[in-house]
Specification:
- With 263 residues, the protein is of the alpha/beta class.
- It contains twelve helices and ten strands.
- It has a single domain, classed as Aldolase class I (TIM Barrel, Alpha-Beta Barrel), CATH 3.20.20.70.
- Strands 1-2-3-6-7-8-9-10 form an eight-stranded parallel beta barrel, surrounded by four helices. Strands 4-5 form a two-stranded antiparallel ribbon.
- α9 runs antiparallel to α12 and α11 packs antiparallel against α12.
- The mean pLDDT is 94.
Length: 263
Amino acid sequence: MAKSQNFSAFFQEDGRTVILPIDHGTAIPVPGLDRPDEVIESVRDWVDGFVVNFGVVRACQEQLAGKGVCMRTDLYKPAVEGNPDPGPVRLFTAADAASVDANAVMNMFYLHHPHESENACECATLISEAQEFGLQVILETLPMGIGRPDDYTVENISFAVRFSAELGADVIKTAFPIDATVEDFKAIVDAALVPVIVLGGAAMGDDRALLTMVRKAMDGGASGIAVGRNVWQHPHPPAVAAALREIVHEDASVDSAMKLIQD
């Protein structure tokens, strides 16, 4: 499949996307994700694509049909206290992703991590491999490591995003900086060279806070979102997915999107 076709598997005519990551099974305990096939079925009407591990791609071909499929190529498990943190570890190739008809691959890149150089080399190799198969490469770009929100400052996110763009990512997934205004984030997006999508992180337990963050990201020029736990760990995943879609694709206000969850 041509690279442009793989891009349009995720990004709609408005140039925006709603992606649901369900790739957490190799990283953290995942209450709410014991049946990924049922999660996919429950939200697929409001989601443009999914991020999944190799095993889930193979097990859920029927449920994923017609949606953008991004296969995770690395292991990004947080370090256990007292053990060294190796950072992301590359496990799969672009050829593996092509073998299961994925449209894209995703790998972590941790800027300023102790193993940054090895991580950057693995990401560059993946980008090189993906050219042969026409796959989109989404780099999930975070300073220091996963679950480090205090490090997700405007300065750090800005450099991480531009670094990943210079490396050759087709799309960059990152966090909305903790200290950012809409104008701050717009400057990051304007310098990114490629589309930027915003992750949701850990389940907030606060619907309005989630929707407000997404609204700010979209106002700042984001091309979409990749929100996982805040959807499938919610008591009503379809309602949250619908609300997120309203903001991303219909440019809805937070108040308007909230009504879809509250009804």
